[in-house]
Amino acid sequence: MKTIVKLTAVALILLIAACGKESKFLVNTSLQGKWKLSATYADPGDGSGKYLPVSASNTEYVQFKTDGTLAGTAFVNYESYAEKDSVTLIFTATDHITKQNFRYSIKGNELTMSPAGPIMCIEGCGERFTKIDQ
């Protein structure tokens, strides 16, 4: 019985110690993983735009890796990302110079993104992704 109490105490101490450490990464952990393009937004300029589902055969995806790199077919001109703040991502192009901001939000397993400069859409545009892998 004393052995069980000692083991439980040790396990509890380890658990508390592990929970006390803070991550030094600024990456939103819910962002990390593989996301498949599910819808695109377009507005003809009159405010009537809406998100429309992509075709079932569409295979575009983006993968946000834990080391800050990007993979996939949705943003092939960009190789890395960083979180600027809670609503803005900064993508760095493969030339290591060009940067692009994207507004983003995550609700459940849905990621919504739209360009936020320097390239922007005059009429409004955006993409939605569904998380398919951690």
Automatic annotation (TrEMBL):
It comes from the Bacteria. The keyword Signal applies. Residues 1-20 form the signal peptide. This is Lipocalin-like domain-containing protein. Keywords: Signal. Residues 31-117 form the Lipocalin-like domain. InterPro entries: Lipocalin-like (IPR024311). It comes from Mucilaginibacter gilvus.
